[in-house]
Amino acid sequence: MKSGVYYRHVLILLFALWSASANAHDRSESFSEWTWRDDQLHYSFSVLQREVTRIPGSQESGIALGDQLSRYLGSQITVASGGRNCGVDKKPVALRSREGFLHIEGSFRCSGTEAPTITINSFFDLLATHTHYVKVRFQGRVEEFLLTSHRRSQTFTAPGAAGKQSPDGWQVFSQYIEIGAKHILSGADHLAFLFGLILLARGWKEMAWLITGFTLGHSISLAVAVLGFAQPNSVMVEALIGFTIVLVAIEAGGKRSGQLTQLAPWALILCLGMSMPVWWLNLQWKLLLGTLGAGLFALCYLRLVAGAKDPGVLRLLVTSLFGVIHGFGFAGGLLETDFSAADMAFVLLGFNLGVELGQLIVLIAVIVLMLGIRKFASMQWQQRGANATVTVLSGLGTFWFVSRLIG
């Protein structure tokens, strides 16, 4: 019996605990940078455009999402000093931003002499797993904080205190290792794709090749985007990440059932079905062409795989291409952390290493579970587990693809 059969049943245990709430634990991030000068605190706040649709009533009001976010943040961000709230110096205003993101700027003025404390409540009550990255600049010092639903406030270092100077390259490197690892471990979509690759692989060797191809792909596109050589549409990228999961699930299910040729058209049908809502709601021809192109690509690829005697090389190439798409997704969040050009090499290396470490943690967890229970699982149980996992992956991928296109 091939070793590839044994590990598939492990996935059903993972998804039983994780997949039912995948939407609630989907990666959700926002970023702010604060500049503290004398008694004024100026901030810039950025977030993916689709995150704003979580705000109640955002899709029915007819008001631009940037203006809605400005109003929302006006009641969600506060600053206090010496036990007293600081006054609003400049109300939040929406400014131009990268495609797919929203950028808001505002400022506070504090009369107290004590170090200010910021409190950011935005999105935490809408999604408990939301995280917010804060960077503060003051008198040559740089402070960075991570806020969560359980820790929404942070006091800055007092003036004259022994604060941390701007970090050197290796400090930046270590910081971004942590950011990269957290990014993939909190990203249900990237983890779902990794599970799909494990399910699709015919054995240990092919699984290693597929993971390597995925890693190479996202490393290249991450560098290309961060270095400014490409600026892909973030809405399309996030949607295509969901579509890659659908495609892997269709291939895995079709391969197991022997009906891959019959299942292949469903990917194109999904994209055709989405083309009209995409055009009607977004009126962006780039999204429309991207959606139709994804469907045609999926149909051609699945038909080629179904007819190939040994689809390993083709599967590796396409997995590497999917890695490119996921890498552009990684870059979207990384670019919002506002690093300096001098630190770019350390940022890229650190973040990429963090992503790889996160992937490695997931793979080790799966392999340990696999080795621990493989001898106790019957073939029938393995088959049911694999089929259930394919179904879950298909549903999750379709949900992310559709909701990110029209959300």
In terms of topology, how is this protein built?
Elements: H1 3-6, H2 8-18, E1 29-37, E2 40-48, H3 49-52, H4 65-74, E3 77-81, E4 84-85, E5 87-95, E6 101-109, E7 117-120, E8 131-138, E9 141-147, E10 153-155, H5 169-185, H6 188-200, H7 204-226, H8 234-257, H9 260-282, H10 285-307, H11 312-335, H12 344-373, H13 379-406
Parallel strand pairs: 1-8
Antiparallel strand pairs: 1-2, 2-6, 3-4, 3-7, 5-6, 7-10, 8-9
Helix pairs in contact: 2-12, 2-13, 5-12, 6-8, 6-13, 7-11, 7-12, 8-9, 8-10, 8-11, 8-13, 9-10, 9-13
Q: Can you summarize this structure?
A:
The chain has helices at 3-6, 8-18, 49-52, 65-74, 169-185, 188-200, 204-226, 234-257, 260-282, 285-307, 312-335, 344-373, 379-406, and strands at residues 29-37, 40-48, 77-81, 84-85, 87-95, 101-109, 117-120, 131-138, 141-147, 153-155. The chain has two domains: 3-25 and 178-406, no CATH class; 29-155, Immunoglobulin-like (Sandwich), CATH 2.60.40. It has 407 residues and is an alpha+beta fold.
